[in-house]
Write a structure and sequence with these properties.
The complex is a heterodimer of chains A (199) and B (368).
Chain A (H helix, E strand, L loop, with lengths): L1 H5 L13 H11 L7 E6 L5 H10 L5 H7 L3 H9 L6 E6 L4 H11 L4 E8 L4 H4 L8 E8 L7 E7 L11 H9 L4 E6 L2 E7 L1
Parallel strand pairs in A: 1-2, 1-3
Antiparallel strand pairs in A: 3-4, 5-7, 6-7
Chain B lengths: L6 E10 L2 E2 H9 L6 E4 L8 E5 L15 H8 L14 E4 L5 H10 L10 H12 L5 E4 L5 H14 L5 E8 L3 H9 L21 E2 L1 E8 L5 E10 L12 H13 L6 E3 L6 H14 L5 E2 L2 H4 L6 H15 L1 E2 L19 E2 L6 E7 L3 E9 L1
Parallel strand pairs in B: 4-8, 5-6, 5-7, 11-12, 11-15
Antiparallel strand pairs in B: 1-2, 1-9, 1-10, 3-4, 7-9, 10-16, 13-14, 15-16
Helix pairs in contact in B: 1-10, 7-8
The chains are: A alpha/beta (199), B alpha/beta (368).
């Protein structure tokens, strides 16, 4: 379904070997029209789950294609290689409860004029039944820049003192907040508070 | 790409198939090779391929992972600074994390392996084992992973978010990764000969783990001109004109102007990438001797940037850089150093790594 729905967003024939996550990330990034001087920050906890499952199942005759596809950060590479889009900085990140905070911090520390912060997950099959994969498929991409003109919103990460346990904020929850244009003002990691408001 | 600001390197160390930093460096100077022919799928057999496993460990994973003692031994050498606290963040970089455990689960069915199988589970477990706090950032971009950790650590220091930063890299091989590279026909029965101009290329794979402690103002060495570039041209091939290599080296070349350098290249043993890489380095840094140590240690994947940084530091400290062990003449360029050489008279080394997808990374290492 995803492949059929998004086929026209990519060069002819390119989607045949792309994963679900690659298709979704690629479509999301496409909307932002990546530029040479952008930085890309990519956040995912599980990465290419279906390719990983397929590769593990291919043994003892290991599949070279599935091996290649399973290597992080395949999803973004699938999209940008398909479109031949070089970029200077590319920070693929992984993690769990603090991944959002870390990805936002990485984005804010970049000197690039624009940072494309993207991320997502792919629903697993047998890895999901074992509790080590996402139970949903989703992707997002936002363009962050210091230029306020035309901005949809504002994001900030504020250091804060705290002696209590750090609050976790998951990637799916961040996706939902972006999708719903939900304002955020909350701890998201050790000593970090995320502010997200919309114009 | 705007290079990251300079930072001081306070400490660095590694562990490889030849032992710790000093042991590995000494063995490389003797021209020893850690790689040995081993079945590509471990206990399940297969073609014999060059692998370098650390500390007598097995390719087949255990639960908990059999590389934990090696990591603990390495971690004992890290200066103690309350790592993982907000002002002493840890940047973990790897390509494989615990994927060997996922492989072991799928092949053997023991669910005990799953606790280490995903990057987040693996790193969280490791952080508990090593007594780190929760300020741990995890990066994974194949063979340039370590460079990304160094770059982010430098930025955190300069933004005032950290007093010191620890970059910790690890990659322990398993049938998951050996099977994959073998299926890609890059890992075969031939030993790697980095930068050798010969009919066929091949790589070896090796265990590797390393650390680097960065600060703004303490340390004997400086890491500067950190540069990154991503061709996004092809998954397994570079642009034929070498433009990707040149784009990454440009900022480093500018920063290193006037210095007499040597070069620690990526040099895995593949042909086309090695040809392009050595040509780009020769163009950017004429007459600088070029070495790669992967012909001995194997390619340690996501950890290679920090592992080889530690060995470069050891080379400067001891006054002698190992040559390209496993390399053979003729080489792609006359700059390739097959034999060890004195680092006296050189006032810096450029360290580079490359990865699938046309990813490139480089930095300049000098005395502070």
């Amino acid at each position: 379904m995803t492949r059929e729905r998004l086929r026209d967003r990519f060069p002819k024939g390119a989607t045949r070997r792309m994963t679900q996550l690659g298709l979704l990330i690629g479509a999301a990034l496409d909307d932002l029209v990546p530029r040479y001087d952008d930085a890309v920050v990519y956040a995912t906890q599980y990465g290419e789950t279906r390719a990983l499952e397929g590769y593990l199942d291919s043994f003892p005759a290991a599949s070279p294609t599935l091996f290649q596809t399973s290597i992080h950060p395949s999803a973004v590479q699938q999209a940008m290689i398909t479109r031949q889009q070089p970029v200077g900085e590319f920070f693929p990140m992984t993690g769990r409860g603090h991944l959002v905070a870390q990805a936002v911090q990485t984005s804010l520390l970049s000197p690039a004029p624009r940072v494309l912060l993207c991320g997502g997950e792919e629903r697993g099959t047998w890895l999901l039944t074992r509790g080590v994969a996402s139970d949903r498929t989703f992707a997002f991409a936002v363009a962050l820049t210091a230029e306020p003109g035309g901005a949809l919103g504002r994001v900030a990460l504020r250091p804060e003192d705290g002696t209590g346990g750090a609050t976790e904020f998951s990637l799916p929850d961040f996706f939902e907040a972006l999708k719903a244009r939900q304002a955020l003002d909350r701890p998201v990691g050790p000593g970090a508070r995320l502010i997200l408001d919309w114009t | 790409m705007l290079p990251a600001a300079a930072v001081r390197l306070e400490a660095a160390g590694c562990i490889t198939g030849l032992g710790d930093t000093a042991a590995t460096h000494a063995a490389l100077l003797r021209g020893e090779r850690a790689l040995a022919l081993s079945p590509v799928l471990g206990a399940e057999g297969g073609e014999l391929v060059p692998l370098a496993l650390g500390g007598g460990r097995n390719l087949d994973e255990t639960a908990p992972p059999n590389w934990l003692p090696l990591v603990q031994r390495l971690a004992a050498a890290i200066p103690a600074y309350e790592w993982g606290s907000p002002t002493r963040p840890v940047f973990v970089t790897s390509s494989n994390f615990g994927v060997g455990s996922l492989y072991a689960f799928r092949r053997g069915g023991d669910p005990g392996h799953l606790a280490y199988g995903t990057p987040s589970l693996c790193v969280e477990w490791l952080a508990r084992q090593l007594g780190w706090g929760s300020t741990v950032t995890t990066l994974s971009h194949a063979c340039v992973s370590a460079h990304l950790g160094l770059t982010l650590a430098a930025r955190a220091l300069h933004a005032g978010l950290a007093e010191r930063a620890l970059v910790f890299s690890f990659d322990f091989i398993s049938p998951f990764v050996t099977g994959g590279f073998h299926a890609l026909k890059i890992l075969n029965a031939g030993f790697p000969a980095p930068y050798a101009d010969r009919p066929t290329g091949s790589i070896g794979l090796g265990d590797g783990a390393g650390f680097a402690v960065l600060s703004r103002d303490r340390g004997e060495f400086t890491i500067s001109a950190q540069s990154l570039y991503n061709e996004m041209h092809h998954f397994t091939a570079n642009r034929a004109d070498g433009a990707g290599f040149a784009a990454c080296l440009g900022p480093v070349q500018a920063a290193a102007s006037g210095r007499r350098l040597w070069l620690k290249g990526h040099g895995t043993g593949t042909l086309e990438a090695g040809r392009l890489e050595s040509a780009a380095l020769a163009a950017a840094f004429p007459e600088a001797p070029l070495v790669s140590w992967k012909g001995s240690l194997g390619h340690s994947l996501g950890s290679c940037g920090v592992v080889e940084l530690a060995l470069a530091v050891e080379s400067i400290r001891t006054g002698r850089a190992p040559g390209t062990v496993g390399g053979v003449a003729p080489c792609f360029t006359p700059q390739v150093a097959l034999e060890s050489f004195s680092t006296a008279g050189h006032d810096g080394v450029v360290c580079t790594s490359n990865a699938f997808g046309g990813a490139h990374a480089a930095f300049l290492l000098t005395h502070a």
